[in-house]
Design a protein that fits this description.
- The chain has a four-stranded mixed beta sheet.
- The protein has 235 residues and is α+β, with helices and mostly antiparallel strands.
- Keywords: Membrane, Transmembrane, Transmembrane helix.
- This is DUF4191 domain-containing protein.
- Pfam families: DUF4191 (PF13829).
């Protein structure tokens, strides 16, 4: 009985947390998409109404109503998820580190390392490793990040010579990839590596180190007014 009560309590807490997360997501989405509630509700009502109407036509309104209710919830969830994702990208776009946040959502099979290269102007390059190889994602001034990408490729060339390297510059200009399309662009890349090869590439890159691990940081609180060292890239 005690175990059953504990299980029910855990399920209730999990459901409450899930509902709270949905509510927070809705509030965030509504800031940039005020009509999200009306659109989602409209989709649900139309879906349920269409299925119920079909049910009356075929003489099974109860069964069609149940099916319509389930499909209405599913359609509402899909539309809400898409609009919430669009709103999230809209809020992140133009913010420093936005590409790193997108890389964290790419999915399983990818290992991401934020800020493997950066310059004094805060242009930054992030790295992701998966079965498609190595993907370098740069955000910042397009002209400046090209040199950052070239330097990072040269640095990796000594370590991972047999792994394909792709680069993405985040932006809306020619040859660039909008922030909201970074994930789909990466997932469309051909998978050419096996699991063990991905692990080996990650191990070699980890041994090479990255910007954060190589940066000498003082112990304790960061001093006020601390500036980046001169010389361009932080290594």
């Amino acid at each position: 009985m005690a175990r059953k009560a504990n299980t029910e309590g855990a399920d209730s807490a999990e459901n409450a947390g899930r509902l709270k997360q949905i509510a927070l997501t809705y509030k965030m989405t509504r800031r940039t998409d005020p009509k999200v509630g009306l659109v989602v509700a409209g989709v649900g009502i139309i879906t349920f109404g269409v299925l119920l109407g079909i049910g009356f036509l075929i003489g099974h309104p109860v069964y069609a109503g149940i099916l319509g209710f389930v499909l209405a919830l599913l359609a509402m969830a899909i539309i809400f998820g898409r609009r919430a994702e669009r709103a999230a990208f809209g809020q992140m776009e133009g913010q420093p580190g936005a590409a790193a946040a997108v890389l964290d959502r790419v999915g399983r099979g990818w290992t991401t390392t934020p800020a493997v290269a950066m310059n004094r102007s805060q242009d930054v390059v992030h790295r992701a490793v998966g079965k498609a190889g190595i993907v370098l994602v740069a955000e910042g001034n397009p002209n400046r990040v090209k040199s950052l990408l070239a330097a990072e490729k040269k640095r990796m060339a000594r370590i991972v010579v047999d792994v394909p390297v792709h680069d993405i510059i985040v932006g809306d200009g020619e040859g660039q990839v909008p922030l909201k399309k970074v994930r789909t662009t990466m997932l469309k890349l051909p998978r050419v590596l096996t699991g063990p090869q991905v692990t080996a590439a990650n191990d070699r890159l980890r041994a090479m180190g990255d910007l954060m691990s190589n940066m000498p940081l003082p112990k304790g609180p960061m001093p006020k007014g601390m500036r980046m060292p001169r010389g361009g890239k932080m290594r």
